[in-house]
Amino acid sequence: MSINTLVVDDSQSALALMSALLDTLGISPCQCANSGDEALTLIRKAGSPIELIFVDLNMPGMDGMELVRRLSKEGFSGAIVILSELDNKIIQLASDVLLERCTRLVGCINKPVTNDKLSAMLNKYQLMNQQLKQHNKNALSIEQISAAITENRVIPYYQPKVDNKTGNVDSLEILVRISLPNELDAVSAVRFIDTAERHGLIEALTLSILQKVMHDLPAIFEEFGDDCQLSLNISALMLNNDKLPIKLLALLDEHGFSAKNFIIEVTESYAVDNTAQMETLNRLRINGFGLSLDDYGTGYTNIQQLKKLPYTEIKIDRSLIYNIANDKLSQVVAQALFDIFEELQVDVVTEGVELASDLHYLNSLDIPLKLQGFIISKPKMVDSICHWHRSWKRIQPQQSCVKQLEFDGFLVEAS
Where does 293-381 have alpha helices with state H? Predict the structure, then answer.
């Protein structure tokens, strides 16, 4: 696999080990530097840009944090992985500082580096790269999105959130898909949401999907219970419309449903930073909707905003959750967030749970979480998600079935 990689460590044995492990995993080309100064020279003279840097924090002369600060000033656009054997508080502080300077901090590998640790971190790096590329790949045109809305080809898919202590499904996220005449699989949101937001189609798209959900709700409530909540993604741009709460309530009332069954998810992609948006959020809460901050950790919301805005749920982005069982940096950052969220008295959802090891780690934590990810269930249309739930209930033991997923998760998915 071609990834232009640089390893920076003052230990020759550590450099040799990293080079050998990367070679074993088929990663090339790889360069090594035993100091920050040498690393900067290699980066500046590189024929093609360095894409991924593994950097030791504790080096004489220019340490790892100083190196990253210098890279940030020079506009380095690649990704960084920390190599460290330091204690958690140092790693936590380093991560806070580095995230301010480098938005593509992948994670931390605790020394000694092993094949498994390195492989997991490379998988996380590739996942982050895929997310970046998907935003621009095969984007639908304005005409295609408009036609899908007009021709009733906007389809709701549903993905469950599971309580890690009881195994119960207490809510479903609504995910918008578009059916194209020339494509077999439904088109996911990454291919059209940005275009819809830029060209004023996002409200029409959202109301179209909500109309479809209204027709699915009787089957959903029959299968999951009347207290099941559904999460609907709302663009932060729509919060500028002071008529939004009235429109949503009117649509629910028309079909005989209540706001208490809905959680409005607001993504961090745009900052909630003006009075109109904050007023809309507050009015949604006043009228009984739950409020969720989606993809926390990828956007604009800081802790002070969380304390001020009336969120009832926070969803931690998959980039922090993926490989958390083996990434000390992610564990330290996540635990700090869990402590803050407990103080704020909000529900916490961990997105992107895909690995059995991550599932086991999250389930072992002595805190209530809602788990969401492919290892539990992929997003499905209404009939399929109801069928999945019947299978889920059959294998659910008396204790938390989430533990059982380490072994049965994909069996449930295949049923």
Answer: 303-308, 318-321, 328-344, 356-364
